[in-house]
Specification:
It contains 14 helices and 15 strands. The two termini are 24 Å apart. The relative contact order is 0.16. The chain is 40% helix and 16% strand. The chain binds pyridoxal-5'-phosphate (PLP). Pyridoxal-5'-phosphate binds next to α5.
């Protein structure tokens, strides 16, 4: 197959000569703990295309782990950042205030689910948004307990790690972890015991959570439940709507706050502007980051006014929280998502990817589950004879995809899920070319494994 297609060209080799030199320097000066999913050094990027330092061109199906719903370097965002940089880069909102912070706070209040008074605090990263949502919830309720879920991911800070449940690589030998953090069981429909129907399994998960409130932590001690509406790092696992609504209602009945961690699911990814809308819930607090500002570091917590106001002046914030550059970028991003209704485009992208893999599945029984919401699609791979997670296969596949010109990541506690986080502005032609390259890469990896077995 000619791998030099219309959009992709990897003729310099991956990595090419300049990339190899930079990798040597990276190994000399950057610690091991900073993981790299690909050997690629990017020079520039636009839309869904990444160009590396050797001139190779890739289709980007990872989108900086879901940060690029509007694609790389969209014109209006770039212009807004440039003109903001001419005016003001930083004054620290605590010292001298600026209008873009207020504009973005207001915009997030307007577009997040829940037709009630809300306020917004702006921060730097996803983990920092999670930390602040927890601080606010504790302050408001006067309770300490925070419940997250198995396979959840909430960041790499001490609290983020404590709420996260994939041990390697996120927590291993990094403890002890924050006290008063607990894990409820998250449903995993496609892995349910064979003897249970879907409905029986969902009811079982709900009763399991009720038992958890008897056996692990009492509801009066819980400040908040934090949930990813669709689990990201955990393997693109979509919980049943009934489960989410039940947990949400249980929280309400016990005065427990519900925090929706929409850091990966937000801004159109799941076929709604926010996934909470799909699940028909209006969270007390929502954490946002990633696709909020097309890659400029910024995050936010938006929530009910009475809850957000529980902390006193000085208890929340930070030097760089809600930087002017991030604010203006985010305002442009939101405008683009709304004017182009990108959440609707996300549904079409997801359907196309699912259909493609449903067709492929007939020839490749190693593909065992195709799931997702909107354009947040995960393809699970398990050994068809042993049913064991095909971690090595997916590792080899993501590597091969990259060599063939598609940047794509894995997910899941067993790292056996291929996850699609393509920009939502991707064209049909680009998506088709990328899917075709993935298919070719699967053929190559299967061929390679057959040769190895022989
Ligand atoms: C659901 C969720 N929460 C929190 C985080 C942490 O965000 P950050 O890496 O910006 O700290 C992530 C990042 O992947 C995430 O997906």
């Amino acid at each position: 197959m000619n791998i030099n297609r219309k959009f992709v060209n990897v003729s310099a080799g991956v990595p090419g000569p300049i990339g190899k030199k930079l990798t040597d320097l990276r190994n000399q000066y950057v610690p091991n703990g900073v993981g790299n999913n690909t050997p690629v050094f990017v020079e520039k990027a636009n839309g869904s295309i990444v160009e590396d330092v050797d001139g190779n061109k890739y289709l980007d199906f990872a989108g900086a782990i879901g940060s690029l719903n509007v694609g790389h370097t969209p014109d209006h965002v770039v212009q807004a950042i440039k003109s903001q940089a001419d005016q003001l880069i930083h004054s620290c909102f605590h010292v001298v205030m600026y209008k873009p912070y207020i504009d973005l706070a207001k915009k997030l209040v307007e577009i997040t689910p829940g037709d009630f008074p809300k306020k917004t605090i702006l921060l730097n990263s996803g983990a920092e948004a999670v930390e602040n949502a927890v601080k606010i919830a504790r302050k408001y309720t006067g309770r300490a307990g925070i419940v997250s879920f198995t396979r959840g991911f909430h960041g790499r800070t001490l609290l983020g790690m404590s709420l996260t449940s994939k041990v390697k690589p996120y927590k291993y030998k990094m403890g002890p972890f924050a006290p008063a953090t607990y894990k409820g069981q998250f449903p995993y429909l496609s892995n349910r015991p064979a003897e249970l129907t879907e409905d029986e399994y969902i009811n079982f998960c709900i009763s399991q959570f009720k038992d958890f409130l008897l056996t692990e932590v009492s509801p009066e001690e819980i400040a908040a439940v934090i949930m990813e509406p669709v689990q990201g790092e955990g393997g693109f696992i979509v919980p049943p709507k009934k489960f989410v609504k039940e947990i949400f209602n249980l929280c309400k009945s016990y005065g427990i706050l519900f925090i929706a961690d929409e850091i990966q699911t937000g801004f159109g990814r799941t076929g709604e502007l926010f996934a909470s809308t799909y699940f028909e819930i209006e969270p007390d607090l929502i954490t946002m980051s990633k696709s909020l500002a097309a890659g400029v570091p910024i995050s936010a917590v938006t929530g009910r006014t009475n809850i957000m106001d529980a902390a006193s002046p000085g208890e929340l914030g930070g030097t760089y929280g809600g930087s002017p550059l991030g604010c203006v970028a985010a305002l442009e991003v939101i405008d683009k998502i709304q004017s182009e209704k990108l959440w609707i485009k996300a549904r079409g992208i997801g359907e196309k990817i699912k259909l493609f893999f449903n067709n492929l599945k007939k020839d490749y029984p190693i593909i065992t589950d195709i799931r997702g919401l909107g354009a947040m699609v995960g393809i699970e791979f398990n050994d068809p004879t042993t049913s064991q997670p095909a971690k090595e296969f997916v590792g080899a596949l993501t590597k091969k995809c990259c060599e063939n010109g598609v940047i794509i990541l894995s997910a899941g506690v067993h790292s056996n899920v291929l996850r699609f986080l393509t920009p939502l502005i991707i064209s049909d032609e680009e998506l088709d070319e990328g899917l075709d390259i993935i298919k070719y890469s699967i053929q190559q990896v299967v061929g390679q494994l057959v040769t190895e077995v022989k």
